[in-house]
Write a structure and sequence with these properties.
By secondary structure, this protein is of the alpha+beta class. The chain has five domains: 60 residues, Helix hairpin bin (Helix Hairpins, Orthogonal Bundle), CATH 1.10.287; 238 residues, D-amino Acid Aminotransferase, Chain A, domain 1, CATH 3.30.470.30; 76 residues, Nucleic acid-binding proteins (OB fold (Dihydrolipoamide Acetyltransferase, E2P)); 150 residues, DNA polymerase, domain 1 (Orthogonal Bundle); 68 residues, Rossmann fold, CATH 3.40.50.10190. The chain is built from 24 helices and 22 strands. Strands 12, 13, 14, 15, 16, 17 and 18 form a seven-stranded antiparallel beta sheet that branches. A hairpin with a 2-residue loop joins strand 13 and strand 14. The longest helix has 24 residues. The termini are far apart.
Length: 674
C-alpha cells in the first residue's frame, strides 16, 4: 500500500473505531462484536507501525476507551486504568512471553512467574477507600478520567461499603486504597432481566456485558439496585499504608479486607502454565455461571512490572489471551422454512458465511414465528450470531441501527413448502398436516421409526435410510417391511451377509410391543412415556385410532395439544393407509389390555449400570412380560433393580422399604420362575 492509500485508510479506521468506542463505552449499544472491533484495532495498529509518520496523537490505538458521559460527574484516576494487549492465538501468547524475557534480558530458558485469572466480560471500575470507607467509585472511562458512579456502585451488594480486616481493627486499614475490579451480571440474572424486559415490551440486552454496563450507568441508582450485579476485584491502584512485593500478594490483601476476588485466580510457572490455565478455563467456561472471554496473564513480581513499564495504552507486563469468539456479526441473506420429522416448520436464517468459534456458520435457527417477531429479524438485517452452548448457531440479536431500508419481514407460509399440505399452528409451533406422506418428513420419520427406542431395526440408520429413499424403495415407514434382498443388493456398499442381517432385523421388529410401535409413528407430543400411558388406557391401536377428544383428555397426562395431535394423525387418510400396510406386512399390533405375563401389573425401576444388558433392553423385557418401567422412585414401584454405581435412587428406595434385587434375580423374574 502506498503512502497516500495508507493515510486514507488510517483516517477511515480511526473514525470508524472512534464511533464504535462511543457506542460501546458511552451509549452501551455496540453495533459490532468484540471480535470485529479487535480486528479493526489490530489493522489500524499494523498500519501505524508500517507508516509511523501517519500515527496521530489522538489515534484510538493511544486511547483506552471513550470520554465519560456528560450526565455523570468525572473522576480522575491517580494511576491510569490501562487496557490490555490481546493475544488471539497460542503463537501470540508465546510471543508475549518472549517479549517479556527480551525486555528483562532473561534467557529463553528462564521462567517468569505469572498470575492467571479469568478475563471477565463486564465493566471495569475503580473503588476508592479512605480510612476503610468507600468514598468514590468510577468507570474506567478513557483510562485517565472515568464517570462518577459512586451511588450506583453502593447498590452492588458484593462491594463492601467499609473494609473489614481480621478482628475488625480499623486502624490496620490503609489510609487510602484504590481497587480495580470488573462489575458483571451473572448469567442467571441476565436471563431473568431479559425475560422481564420482554414482558415489558422493552428491547433485550444482546449479552451480559451490555446488561451490566447499562445497569451500572443508570442515572437513577434505584434502577441499578434492582439488578443483581456482582464484582470481582483484580488489582490495586494507588495505595497508602501498605506495601506488596507481588500482584498475588495484593490480591490476598484485598481478600483479607473483605473484597471479592475470583477464587480461580492462581500463580503459574512460565508461559506453559498460562497456556494450560487458558485451556482449562476454555473447557469449563460454560459451567462458571458468568461470561468470560479469555484469561489474563500478569507478571507476578511488582518489581518486574515496574521494570517492564507501560506503552501508550497498555502495560508490557500483562496480556489478555482471548478464547475463540462465540459471537460475530453478519447479514441475513434469506429466511427459509425447514420441515422436520414431526412436521414442525422451522424458520432458518441463511447468512453470509461467518466464522464463530472456529466453525463457519451459514445458517442459524429462528425457532418459530414468535421468535422471529420477538427478535424482529428481517431479510437484509445485520445480526449478531452465536453458537448456543458452543454448538447450535442462533441469532442473539438484530443490529437495528444497521437495518437497510429494504429489509423484509418474515411470515410463516400457510402451506407446507414441500408437500403443499395445510399448515396448522399448535401453541408456538406451525406443523405440516401431511404426516407420513410428506417427503420432507419421510427420512426423519423412517429413522425415528427404526430407532433403538422405537422398532429397534439394527442396520437401518440415517445413511442407509437416505440411500433407500433416494433409490425410491422407501416412500413411507411401511415400505420397510416390503424391502427385498434383491433390492438391497442392487445398491452400492451392500453384500449378501449385510443384506441378510438387515432383513432379519426387519423381521424381528414385527413382533415389538404396542408402546414402541405407537412411539415409532412419531405423533407430535407422544413420546415413550405417553405411548405407554395410551396403551394402558386404550389397549389396542384400533381403540386409540378411534378415540374421541373427550376420551383422550380423560387419560392421565394427556393434554389438549397432544389429544389434538393424536386425532389429527389418525384422521389423515394417508396415515391410516400406512397403518393398514404395516398390518398387512405382518407387523403385530399387539393388544396390551388384559394381557397376562410373568410381570403383569408390576412396576420396575432401574438404577446404576447393568452388566449384561442396557437399560433399554431391560425395560423392553419388562414390557414384554406385561410390566412397566418407572422413571423415578415412588411407593408404587414393586422392584428396584440395582446395578453397579447405583446412588441416590437406591438410597431413597431403601428409605421407602422397596424391594431391591440384582440383575440375576431380575432375569429369573422375567422368565417367570420367581
Amino acid at each position: 500500500m502506498d503512502f497516500d492509500g495508507a493515510r486514507k485508510k488510517i483516517e477511515r479506521l480511526g473514525a470508524e473505531i472512534n464511533l464504535h468506542n462511543h457506542r460501546y463505552y458511552v451509549l452501551d449499544a455496540p453495533t459490532v462484536t468484540d471480535a470485529e472491533y479487535d480486528r479493526l484495532m489490530r489493522e489500524l495498529a499494523a498500519l501505524e507501525e508500517e507508516f509511523p509518520g501517519l500515527a496521530r496523537p489522538d489515534s484510538p490505538t493511544r486511547r483506552v476507551g471513550a470520554r465519560p458521559l456528560d450526565a455523570f460527574g468525572s473522576v480522575t484516576h491517580a494511576i491510569p486504568m490501562l487496557s490490555l494487549d490481546n493475544a488471539l492465538t497460542r503463537e501470540e501468547a508465546l510471543e508475549f512471553d518472549n517479549r517479556v524475557k527480551r525486555f528483562l534480558k532473561l534467557s529463553p530458558y528462564e521462567e517468569v512467574e505469572y498470575v492467571a485469572e479469568p478475563k471477565m466480560d463486564g465493566l471495569a471500575v475503580e473503588l476508592v477507600y479512605v480510612d476503610g470507607v468507600l468514598t468514590s467509585g468510577s468507570t474506567r472511562g478513557d483510562g485517565v478520567t472515568g464517570e462518577d458512579v459512586t451511588l450506583n456502585l453502593r447498590t452492588v451488594r458484593s462491594i463492601p461499603l467499609g473494609l473489614a480486616p481480621p478482628g475488625n481493627a480499623r486502624k490496620k486499614t490503609p489510609r487510602r486504597l484504590e481497587v480495580r475490579g470488573e462489575v458483571f451480571l451473572p448469567l442467571s440474572g441476565f436471563k431473568k432481566l431479559n425475560r422481564e424486559r420482554e414482558e415489558a415490551a422493552e428491547p433485550v440486552f444482546a449479552n451480559p456485558r451490555n446488561a451490566a454496563a447499562g445497569s451500572l450507568r443508570q442515572l437513577d441508582p434505584n434502577i441499578t439496585a434492582t439488578r443483581p450485579l456482582d464484582i470481582f476485584c483484580y488489582g490495586v491502584g494507588a495505595v497508602e499504608g501498605v506495601e506488596f512485593a507481588s500482584h498475588y500478594e495484593g490480591l490476598e490483601f484485598l481478600k483479607s479486607m473483605g473484597l471479592k476476588v475470583n477464587p480461580l485466580v492462581k500463580t503459574v510457572k512460565g508461559i506453559d502454565g498460562v497456556l494450560q490455565y487458558h485451556d482449562r478455563m476454555e473447557e469449563c467456561r460454560d459451567k462458571l455461571g458468568y461470561e468470560v472471554d479469555g484469561v489474563v496473564a500478569k507478571v507476578n513480581s511488582l518489581a518486574l512490572q515496574s521494570a517492564l513499564g507501560v506503552k501508550d495504552r497498555s502495560p508490557r507486563w500483562a496480556v489478555a489471551y482471548k478464547f475463540m469468539p462465540r459471537q460475530e456479526s453478519t447479514r441475513v441473506v434469506a429466511i427459509e422454512v425447514g420441515v422436520g420429522r414431526t412436521g414442525a416448520l422451522t424458520p432458518v436464517a441463511v447468512l453470509e458465511p461467518v466464522t464463530v468459534g472456529g466453525v463457519t456458520i451459514e445458517h442459524a435457527t429462528l425457532h418459530n414465528q414468535d421468535e422471529v417477531e420477538r427478535k424482529d429479524a428481517r431479510v437484509g438485517d445485520w445480526v449478531v450470531v452465536q453458537r448456543a452452548g458452543d454448538v447450535i448457531p442462533e441469532i442473539a440479536c438484530v443490529i437495528k441501527e444497521r437495518r437497510p431500508p429494504d429489509a423484509r419481514p418474515f411470515v410463516m407460509p400457510d402451506k407446507c413448502p414441500v408437500c403443499s399440505s395445510a399448515v396448522e399452528r399448535v401453541g408456538a409451533i406451525h406443523f405440516c398436516t401431511g404426516g407420513l406422506a410428506c417427503p420432507a418428513q419421510l427420512k426423519g420419520s423412517i429413522c425415528h421409526f427404526a430407532s433403538k427406542r422405537a422398532m429397534d431395526i439394527e442396520g437401518l440408520g440415517p445413511m442407509n435410510v437416505e440411500q433407500f429413499v433416494e433409490a425410491g424403495l422407501f416412500r413411507g415407514v411401511a415400505d420397510i417391511y416390503y424391502l427385498r434382498k434383491d433390492d438391497i443388493l442392487a445398491l452400492p456398499r451392500w453384500a449378501g451377509r449385510s443384506a441378510d442381517n438387515l432383513i432379519t432385523a426387519i423381521e424381528k421388529s414385527k413382533r415389538t410391543t404396542l408402546p414402541r410401535l405407537i412411539f415409532g409413528l412419531g405423533i407430535h407430543g407422544v413420546g415413550e412415556h405417553a405411548s405407554a400411558v395410551l396403551v394402558e388406557q386404550f389397549g389396542s391401536m384400533d381403540a386409540l385410532a378411534n378415540a374421541t377428544e373427550a376420551e383422550l383428555l380423560s387419560t392421565r397426562e394427556i393434554g389438549p395439544e397432544t389429544a389434538a395431535s393424536i386425532i389429527d394423525f389418525f384422521k389423515e387418510p394417508r396415515n391410516r393407509a400406512a397403518l393398514k400396510k404395516l398390518r398387512d406386512a405382518g407387523v403385530v399390533f399387539e393388544t396390551a389390555k388384559g394381557k397376562v405375563g410373568a410381570l403383569a401389573g408390576k412396576v420396575f425401576l432401574f438404577t446404576g449400570t447393568l452388566s449384561t444388558m442396557t437399560r433399554d433392553e431391560a425395560k423392553e423385557m419388562v414390557e414384554r412380560a406385561g410390566g412397566k418401567a418407572a422413571a423415578g422412585v415412588g411407593r408404587k414401584v414393586d422392584y428396584v433393580v440395582a446395578g453397579t454405581g447405583a446412588g441416590g435412587k437406591l438410597a431413597k428406595a431403601s428409605e421407602l422399604g422397596l424391594t431391591i434385587i440384582g440383575e440375576e434375580e431380575f432375569r429369573v423374574l422375567t422368565a417367570g420362575k420367581g
